[in-house]
């Protein structure tokens, strides 16, 4: 069974969804059921499990939002997981703060494995941290080929620590981040030869947004004069000579007072005709404060949040009734992001039917929504082996690459096209070839023949079925699986086809007896093989559905 995703349906929805009055930004007051809870978790957690959905339904909307947005510890750092490299480190010891003595080419692989294992790890609290980490990766879109993995780790950790923090603080930290300085030539921005790359992107992509051009070098939100002035204000920041250093040079940046332009910087009327006076090492903070005083910055940021969490289409109704109030909330809370997320994710608008299943999953979401509801492969004995654990994460990374997303390497400084390129937006994630590869990947993971280094890894169908409400009733099982994995109910014909796949024409009572034996005799292959075989066939078909590509 193979269902092609009809992206024309999404195009139609995009043009029709706001033909009537949209749901408001007021707090959702409808029936709080498992469908609503699952929708919230699909947009905030990477692949929610049934126990998480059930808990969210029991806890209610307000408490669930609070838990999702609550601070949690960042994951422990990546470690040495192979014996054949980095002779100066012990197995299991982290390399993120160690010099690059010895042979350490594995570090980039360690970082990848660590990152993807964190995304799918099922025993971490249900939280928005990893979802927001990817938001920031796309928002700032730093591409720095041949980076020292230590700098890449520091960059990711910043996004984890500040996941739902403060936009002002995030902009300050990113502006002097070593990878950003290198990516946009901030490290060569000097008083003798100002480089405008970062100043331009700081306004166009990270704060104000580029308005329509209304005159020579005038974009309504800023002018070319402002680009030149801000470039001068940002001079003097340099990168430590840490790249692959054999000594203890820290991965950091520093301010060179002798290379900073101390003169006055006159801004245009678009930025209030402000004159920036010399503030030395703190002048970049002055720049950010000026940009945050502009209403355009809050509006631009809230549009990006909306496209990431709700839908890409922002027409005049959404702009006036959703974006502008969110931007006001951001400004009223001194650019704290959590109040904005809470207002958006708790709103009638977020739970509007038109917004359910309206986003095509990016490759991260696609992969996590396959493995995380099964608690991935943590039950398997081989996963106790450190190298296996990391190389499994590396395998996930390879799959993501196949689906069009390079690890920590967005295609442009604007990020992935799915979040800015009109009119395609999310449809950039899907094509006939990419859909075929999605089916191949999901089949490889689910059909019982998934291997890492020759070791077979299997889905824990026993624990999965045990967690369902009524695992002995095949109709209840199918309905609950649809709730977990699909954003909307499916047709009676699709349900019947899925049931035929798992039952093969047998009567319902056959499932009841077989599943009862299976659950009563864990580890007994005589009872497990028939159920596991049926489940694998079922999920191969389920993950081929067009609806599974949506969230």
Automatic annotation (TrEMBL):
Short name of one Pfam family: DUF1800
Lineage: Bacteria, Pseudomonadati, Bacteroidota, Saprospiria, Saprospirales
Annotated source species: Neolewinella litorea
Top-level taxonomic group: Bacteria
Name of the protein in question: DUF1800 domain-containing protein
